[in-house]
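Hey team,

Filing this mostly as a record. A colleague (T.K.) asked me to run one chain through the structure pipeline before their review meeting, and I want the input and output archived in the tracker in case anyone asks later how it was produced. No errors, nothing strange. Just documentation.

Input sequence:
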Amino acid sequence: MANKVVIYDTTLRDGSQTEGVSFSTEDKLDILKKLDHFGMDYVEGGWPGSNPKDAAFFEAASKLELKHARLTAFGSTRRAGTTAAEDPNLKTILESGAECVAIFGKSWDLHVTNALKISLEENLELVRDSVSFLKANGREVVFDAEHFFDGYANNADYAMDVLEAAASAGADWLVLCDTNGGSLPTFVNEVVQEVGKRFDVPTGIHAHNDGELAVANSLAAVAAGARMVQGTVNGLGERTGNANLCSIIPNLALKMRRSITATNLELLTPLSAFVAETANVLADPKLPYVGRSAFAHKGGVHISAMMRDPRTYEHIDPSLVGNQRRMLVSELAGTASVLAKVREFGIDTEKDEGRAILEHLKKLEAEGYQFEGADASFELLVRRLRNGIKPPFHLEGFRIFVDVSGTNVSSEASIKVLDSNGLMEHTAANGNGPVNALDRAVRKALERFYPQLKEVRLADYKVRVIDGKDATGAKVRVLIRSTDGKETWTTVGVSTNIIEASLAALLDSMEYKLLKHSNGVG
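Output structure:
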């Protein structure tokens, strides 16, 4: 089908080359299952001959029953001075059991003469022999023409000769690689069209993001006739990354109206989050479509219009890609913003009350508070202003002791709290630093009254100096993200004392959990 575009995921190979990312075999298997469930057509698992971890992955992956994805092994054309049948790298690829093989070869004459140090004709023979060998062994062959666009710009005839060598040997796909990521969409579109005129073999695009154009170049290639798009989830990859499939897929399906196998787009945002978590990298909140900020609205004018018609400031319905709309509140907000946010909490508020909340919010933000990333603290603030909740506990006081003995530094926190019936708990705890000791003491004291708080744990802790010119006397803003294993929430505290700011955010976190445990009050 001419309108059909095949999605080729290389997160497990190209994505693993991201600085700071290292997938274990178990990680790769988990991601493979998610990619298959999402509906990726091809999943490139790695280079079986390059390391023991990839070899172990293919052995384990061969036992899985994939529903959609065609598992693909990656490798290079044979070495000079041998034959494909004798090349150990190609033998290992065949032994991986993968039915599809992506083989890359040089298409830039500069690389042939300067990197491989062989003749241009010998490089063509490397390509022909390698592709022919893999086809003779029953494999589907995706030929990746490495540095194709740079090669075409330098010597178009030779770049085309490399594709001819692969096509004549039986390659099933001719993938044009913008390996250095420096091409422009207009050039990509022009070159893909020229390749399409010459070859009947379907073409693909593999773009890197060094010019921040990988997504644009991929879409330009599809517009010019490319039928395969290669990329990674979240744009993971070497240097500045690969083409981001989380942007390409919805653009293809929703904007270009192309047919793709992965029709369950509502799984896209969860897939993005899963890969980020497995890669142990912070998910970029500003990623289009799947980022936490992709459908976050802060300006009062924007939110006022959004309340009338979401199309005014959203290019798609966020639920189409599994994301959600978020209304942020700050000193830039208007009454409409506050009312919209409060309704997210299930609270009906009149316009006058919304203005009062907004004025209070602006005063707090002038003091250094910031609620756009701390929804839990903002909900508690609103409910307190409306007298919708009674504090479930009261802090009577606390003390912090820091003991220095040689090179050892230890901290102890002592705390007194009263529950809603006036019962007191006075307890202490040690910790790795004063904040950690305080955290443990608070939990120890409150868990006596509220056992459900045992479920809560600290997921993230951030400190921001608000006004650095005041040096060590500056105010700090502390953001605490907590989780009970099911939900996650963020609270904020501000003070010139980092311990006091931390305690405020920590107590809000505990109170928010109790609020939700009681099924919401107000």
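Quick notes for T.K.: The radius of gyration is 29 Å. The chain has 17 helices and 16 strands.
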